[in-house]
Each structure stands twice: as C-alpha cells, then as structure tokens.
Design a protein that fits this description.
With about 375 residues, the protein is α/β, with parallel strands linked by helices. It has two domains: about 120 residues, Immunoglobulin-like (Sandwich), CATH 2.60.40; about 220 residues, HAD superfamily/HAD-like (Rossmann fold, 3-Layer(aba) Sandwich), CATH 3.40.50. Helices cover about 35% and strands about 25% of the residues. The chain has a six-stranded parallel β-sheet with strand order 11-10-9-12-13-14, with helices on both faces. A five-stranded mixed β-sheet has the order 2-8-7-4-5, with no helix packed on it. The chain has a three-stranded antiparallel β-sheet with strand order 1-3-6, with no helix packed on it. Strand 4 and strand 5 form a beta hairpin. Helix 4 packs antiparallel against helix 10, helix 6 packs parallel to helix 7 and helix 9 packs antiparallel against helix 10. The chain is globular, with a radius of gyration of 22 Å.
C-alpha cells in the first residue's frame, strides 16, 4: 500500500538524482575533470571466500586531520566528507591470488565483490590484502583493500558498537552530536578510558595468542569512515571491519532503515558467516543496544557468551536495562551494565574470556596509575 512516507521517499530520491545529474552536466559543460578514486572499506571473509566492499568517489579535497587544524578546517573537511561525489555504475576489478572478479557499483557508487580461490584451497585466517582497481573509467592505480578472516585459533568473536561505546558522541543529543561531528576531527575526539586495553585483551583471549576477530557495527554513515579509521589508529584501538550505514533518502537507506534494523541485520550477517564461533557483544545504554542484543540472543541461542553495556543514560533507563538483564538470565547470558572498562574487564576475566594478567594494564588505562584502594569503588 502506498503511504505518504513512500511518496516522500520517491520524491526525495528523484530530486536527489536530478540534482546530481544537473551537477554532473554543469561540470561537463564547464570542462571540470573530476578525478575518481576507490575508497575500500575494511570488511571480512571466511575460509571459503573474501568479501570486498568499497565506494567509488570523486576527489573533493578531503584531507587527513592535522594537529594545527582549527574550527574552520574541521568544518570544511566535514562539508567535503558529507558532500561526496560518487560515481554511479563504475566497473571495479578485485583480485586476490588466482581469484579475480569484476563488479559494477550501484547508483551510489557502492560495490561489493566476492572472491573464491580457483583451486578451492581455504583462505588463510587473519588480515588479507586484496588488489582493487577502477576499470571504467580506467585507471592504472591499484589500491589494497583489507579483508579479515577469523583464524582457526579464535575462541570467540567480538562485536562492538562505536558511538558512546568506544568514543563519546552524546548520540541521544542531536545538538552535541552535530558539534562533535562537524567542529572536531579524529585528533580531537577522545575514546573512553581503557577501551583500547580491554579490546586488546579480548582479542588476545585467555592465552594471549587467540587473535579473536573484532567487528564494529554502527549506525554512523559511511561518510564518517575515514574519520573513524583515523580515530582508531590514533588511539590504538584494534582494527576490525567497520559496518556503517548509507546516508541516503531512498526507502532502504538512512530514513527508513532504523538504528535497530541496521545493527540487527549486520550482526546476523556476522554470526551467520561464522556459525561455529560464539561472540561477545559490546554496546551502550543510549540507543537501545540492550534491546537489540537481547533480540540477537533470542535469534541465535547459545551463541552469545557475554554482553557489556556502557552506562551513558539516566536512572530511568537503567531500570529498563535491569529488566533486560533479568530476562537474559534465563538464557544464561550475562549482561554487565557499567560506566567504565575495568569493571567489564573484571567480569571478563572471571568468566574466562581474558587472561587475568591483563587486568592491571586495563585498570591503569581506565583510572590512571592510582594506588588508592578506594579508587575503583568510586567508579562503581
């Protein structure tokens, strides 16, 4: 049935495409020659295949954040970031060893290719480098896409939110979100204390050499991909595939695809890709991660080992989450609600998820080199 929402989506989508078409024709008439490039996204694969995901974009002058950047520099970079000029229906060639595939990007410039080894040999675990090249329009530049495959040694996988989980964004306050997004850069944004140390401990597992895979699932738009990658690199947060969301106005994208729908679908994709691997889920209390994760537990029984929720909301919200905690007890899945990384790490160590000797570095990273025995108690 056609509704006002469907009509608005259709009108908005058509207006967006007409504007992009007019812009392209204007640039052609003015003799503007735009250079296009491929932005590969960190993605994942399995022992059977690699999945390469990315987008073909026009060069709009976006540059890496500098120490001396001021408000105007950050605002200009944010404008360039969101004013992306994608190349619709570009042809892209991807190759890894003897596996080769050519795919066509969609109308927003996004592409996804699946590579399967010709000889049927299993793909090695860990990070794989895949060659990606723009075929139409042709270019000689070959870039590398990073694709992660969970190794056989993995004890479990980790799926983490980003906003208000590893970095403070005030996702429930639109004004604060806008200020942080447009007037700050990757060097100015700060992670929650102890996140990097806790995540490294989870990846290392109980013996320090498990290489447990970590995935980041967020409702942030793909336009922020470069900022998030830089942020993680600057603050030594472990690398993993980033599964963000397309910022669009057609029916299957930003406006209609809610926070919960996007995250649930991406988490299900990960769990289905690794059917024999249990997972740890990490999120925050601000955007319904507890509800989403409980739905995941119901859809994938016996697959979730623990859930850690960073407490960033008011007391009334905590009561709602406690109800979910109680419900999850019947599924034998612990959900820990806490404001700091060390408390989550203590539970992880007691549950046999991380090595006990990693607790001290996490404690120091979370509260500093504090000798006062009451320091931890003050954080509870």
């Amino acid at each position: 049935m056609t509704t006002w929402r469907n009509i608005l989506h259709k009108l908005g989508y058509e207006a967006e495409k007409q504007f992009e078409s007019l812009t392209q024709k204007f640039e052609e008439r003015m003799g503007v020659e735009r250079a296009y490039y491929i932005q590969p996204y960190r993605w994942f694969g399995t022992s059977e295949h690699l999945i390469v995901k990315g987008r073909v974009l026009g060069d709009n002058g976006l540059r890496e954040a500098q120490d001396q950047d001021g408000t105007w520099d950050n605002l200009l970079n944010s404008y360039r970031r969101f004013n992306s000029k994608e190349l619709p229906y570009a042809r892209v060639r991807v190759q890894h060893g003897d596996a080769v595939s050519e795919v066509t990007a969609d109308d927003e410039g996004y592409f996804e290719a699946v590579l399967k080894p010709e000889n049927g040999a299993p793909v090695m675990g860990g990070w794989q480098s895949v060659s990606v090249q723009l075929q139409e329009p042709a270019t000689s530049e070959v870039i590398a896409a990073e694709v992660m495959v969970a190794p056989e040694s993995a004890e479990y996988g980790i799926i983490s939110d980003i906003d208000d989980t590893i970095l403070e964004t005030f996702a429930t306050n639109l004004l604060k979100v806008a200020k942080l997004t447009f007037l700050n850069n990757a060097k100015m944004r700060l992670p929650f204390p102890g996140v990097a140390a806790f995540y490294r401990a989870l990846i290392d597992g109980t013996t320090g050499d498990k290489n447990n895979p970590i995935f980041y699932v967020s409702s942030s738009p793909w336009n922020l991909y470069d900022l998030l990658i830089d942020f993680m690199k600057i603050h030594d947060i472990p690398a993993g595939p980033l599964m963000l969301r397309d910022l669009g106005i057609d029916e299957d994208k930003f406006i209609t695809s809610g926070h919960g729908d996007h995250k649930t679908a991406q988490i299900a994709r990960i769990l289905n890709a690794y059917p024999d691997l249990p997972f740890v889920l990490i999120g925050d209390s601000g955007q319904h991660d507890p509800e989403i994760y409980r739905a995941v537990v119901k859809a994938f029984p016996d697959r979730i080992k623990a859930i850690y929720i960073r407490d960033v909301s008011q007391e009334a919200r905590e009561m709602e989450i406690q109800t979910i905690v109680d419900l999850l007890q019947s599924d034998n899945v612990p959900m820990v609600l806490t404001e700091n990384s060390f408390i989550a790490a203590e539970h992880a160590a007691a549950s046999g998820l991380i090595a006990p000797h990693t607790l001290e570095p996490i404690r120091v990273a979370t509260i500093g080199d504090e000798e006062d025995p009451d320091a931890i108690e003050q954080l509870l």
